[in-house]
Amino acid sequence: MHPRKDFAIYGKSLAVTVIERVGTVYIAERSGKPAYLVEFPPKLVGTFAATPCAVIDRRGAEIPVMVPHNEYGRSCCYECNLIHELGDMLQNDDILYPKFEKTCGAVMFTEKDGLRKYLLIKNESGHIGFPKGHIDYGESESETADREVFEETGLRFEQFGEFREEYTYTTKQNTIKTGVFFIGHYDFREPKIQEDEIVDDWLLSYVDAMRLLNFPEDKDLLGKAEKYISEYKKQ
Q1: Full-model pTM
Q2: CA-to-CA distance for 104 and 214, rounded, in angstroms?
């Protein structure tokens, strides 16, 4: 399970003092404790304000990862990009807790018995929705969607039209997650569900899928997808 945890320092403007630069990362000090700075220009010196977007748990010690305030919440704050930037600064037993997450997936549909059906999955948290997963460093959104849908369902899909929708919400752990979704069409066959993460799956009509979805954001997404598919097929 992707680690999530809330820290009171997220988003605050905190004073730090630069100690040294290693690669593209600065090692700094905040109130006598270490911090890492990313996305800052070279030749940075002195004391100034930075904003934590993640925290590293290193054997019980909490090390903030900080960015310029105008970068807070942008792509540099996603886990995959932080891991890439931090590089060797991360130790084997470190746990990185990012404030922001980004996932990509697809509203999957097929035709069965002459009817359009949507594939829904239920993960271990109880969330019923669409296959998706975290973006990896260097991947495009569509590449992530392709990989994650295949990992979770064993299905390859064709992206339907130019549909792209995203929504952002706050998790129970007070982290902020952005989901990006395409529409994926596939020729009907039984999925091969990733059993260590997915606890159930359904292939349902639009009406039945709407009834089963348990997040309002997913209901809104499915409504937009159904409308898009219907209008696209009329062209």
Answers
A1: 0.90
A2: 19
Find, among 164, 117, 161, 126, the residue nearest to 145 by Cα: 164
Q: Tokens at residue 40, please?
A: 């800052």
Q: Is 96 exposed, middle or buried (0-12, 13-18, 19+ CB in 10 A)?
A: middle
Position 1 pLDDT exceeds 60:
no
Cβ within 8 Å of residue 160, ≥6 positions away: 109, 182, 183, 184, 185, 228, 229, 232
The DSSP code for 161 is T
Question: Cβ(26)–Cβ(34) under 8 Å?
Answer: no
| The CATH homologous superfamily of the domain defined by 101-234 | Nucleoside Triphosphate Pyrophosphohydrolase (3.90.79.10)
Average pLDDT of the residues in 47-60: 96
Q: Where are the domains of the chain?
A: 14-98, 101-234
How does pLDDT run across 167-191, given as a tens digit for each residue?
999 988 889 999 999 999 999 999 9
CA distance 174 to 188: 38
